Amino acid sequence: MNNNNPTGINGYGVKNYPPDEELSSALHQYAKERLTVPQRLERLKLEHGLTIQKSRLLQLNNQFKVPSPRKRLPQDIATQAVLEKVADDVTQRNGVGTIGTLLGNEGIILPRDFIRKVLATHAPEGLSQRFPGANRVPRSALVAIGPNYQHHADGHDKLNAQALAMGGVSLPIYGIKDQWSSLLLHLVVVPNNRLATTIGHVYLDSPEKHGLIPITFVMDKGSETGFIFGFQTGLREAYAPDIDAEKFPAAQHVRSIHNTPIEGAWHWFLNTLGFNIKDRIRQGYQDGVYNPGNPVHPHLFNWLWPKILQIQLDRFVEYWNNHKIRYQKDKPNMSGQTPRHAFALPKAPAADCRIPVDRSVVDALRGQIPISRDASMRWVDDDFDQAATKAYDDIGRPSLTSVAMGWAIFEQMCPLIVYQPSEFE
């Protein structure tokens, strides 16, 4: 790497630096999580085998232009950045920490005091609404051995057909979360979160992505979990046969209301993004932009809105995994760190319980599901997909990152789509 010491040799030994692009990405990620200097040094050692001193870390942060609260933006630009997040938050549920993390994910690091002052000046109604105790939610203590001891999974139906009440269109969600670290491992919008074939593929997405399974996979008692139970049990027996199955079951069914780790994630999703998204989606119906009786509209909804929602889910996962969980002295699970950092570097007495699995075995299990992953995740048929893709290309492929622009894109695309639905629809 280019620096004043090209040999990498100094008083602390030879340094094997990763490629600049990889190192820059890591340092920016640590900034998003607002990690302390010692935590950043720990992560560099764990993830890249790089042991350096604080002074060298400062040099690297400067070299790769890593944002910091000390590198202040001009006040007008910083204020505008905060107000844009306030404008996106229709229900005014997001507080100082949430807005700070959302901005941090975009590379804008602002001091908490500055954000608080902007909110107090320009959005005081939100502050009173979020006053501690105003909307108290009962909580229960969770106890785990460490990351990957238990993964919890469940579906989220706050955007299903009944909730949207728009003539049958639905946006079901399914998520998987690590109990101890609170890391969100997977969050995806699916055509149907009550189908065993679809959720079987969603389960396999996690070990495919992370290369591991937990000691115990916890899910509700729905029929959609059939493949999960078999796959998790088989993988545990193959890769960790010495674990006592009676004391630590491979898979466990619980009532949804008792599946508190993932249920808690839905609460935060709704407070951070969910209510805003639902309001925006229903606005198209209320304003007459969406008509369920139009033969094209339901298909275009199913083509467009899952894409928009998935981008928002990815943003929420990034926010959640990078946000710092409030320190609680008596909390048995992790607190005072970001979920991503705790998942990567659990502190004693916690221990990483991961069970590594091979990608080839995960691929083989996919072959046991009678419907392919592509088919189980398909929202529209091939003919409509081609027609909608052409219309999207014709309007210049606008960005789908803004929920507020969803219906404007819908209106632009709709007149350009030539499609004849099947007589059986």
From TrEMBL:
Residues 146-331 form the Integrase core domain. It comes from the Eukaryota. This is Integrase core domain-containing protein. It comes from Hebeloma cylindrosporum.
